[in-house]
Amino acid sequence: MKTLRKKYFLSKSRKYLRTAGKLEPTFSSVTMDLMQSQTNLTLRQHIAISIYMTVNQTVMLLAGIIIIGLILNLKILLILKILVIFGPLVSVMMFYTSMFKPKVQAKKRARAIEQELPNALRHLLIEVRSGIPLYQSLVAVTEGYGAVSEEFKKIVKDINGGKSETEAIEDSILINPSLSYRRSFWQLLNAMKTGTDIGSPLGNIVDDIVKDQLISIKKYGQQLNPYTLMYMMVGVIMPSLGITFMIILSSFTGTGLPPVILVSILVGLILFQLVFINLIKTKRPTVRV
Predict the structure, then answer these.
(1) Where is 288: in which H helix or E strand?
(2) 130 three-class SS
(3) Does domain 107-210 fall into CATH 1.20.81?
(4) Residue from 175, 109, 198, 187 nearest 148 by CA
(5) Cα 178 → chain centroid
(6) Domain parsing of the chain, residue ranges
(7) Strands (E), 30-106
(8) What phi and psi, each to the nearest 5 degrees, are found at residue 253?
(9) What are phi and psi of 67, to 5 degrees?
(10) How confident is the model over 65-109, as pLDDT tens digits?
(11) Fewest CB within a 10 Å sphere: which of 203, 213, 281, 284?
(12) How far apart are alpha carbons 179 and 20 in whole angstroms?
């Protein structure tokens, strides 16, 4: 499904490849994100697809604004002003959102790797200390550890393709988005190059990762205190006091409280809840017991 979708966007965005080529130097930093997110697209192709999606989404949004404006009997001049003001802003936002989507995907992949990394390295450590060669140990960890197993599969595939163990691990490090993964395998790689027993540094790597995870859990607990206070203030206290104040004020003035205000407060609270939940999820450490 993803392959068909990719082919579709590539075919539709070909007419923007020349423009994308001119923008390549500006977005050269996205190249590493594309590699780490495993999109298998060149920078020029990604920019062309981003331009294509931006044009389509902007046209659809502006058409929606025009239709809504006509339904509400707004003046044509007012509709044109809205289009002139919001059109370029929306286009820029959509373009940059699409351009930096690989960075978001790379971060998600990094979190998935870091979640399984300690257990996978423990398994690898047990295999190595049992006297099993490193290659066979890597093969043993290619199943059961999610995104980490996928990385080990690539290493094993490269070794089977003719690369040495050190070269395969180096290539894996260079395109991996997880800092913990890169740091761990750099230490393992240094031990392999110096010819020392990899069991001892591998054990130290596992201990360091566990310590880092414990520290991240403590930091997360400390961060929850101000977040809880913010939630109480914005999600509970301010709406309650605000509605009470408006009801009292409307009783003095003799005017009723418009239903649109209550609906707006309700919609605002729902949006705040969604944003707050997403914020907590992104801050939660990737720890798996």
Answers:
(1) none
(2) coil
(3) yes
(4) 109
(5) 12
(6) 2-99, 107-210, 220-283
(7) none
(8) -80, -15
(9) -65, -45
(10) 778 777 777 677 777 777 777 778 888 888 888 888 888 888 888
(11) 281
(12) 30
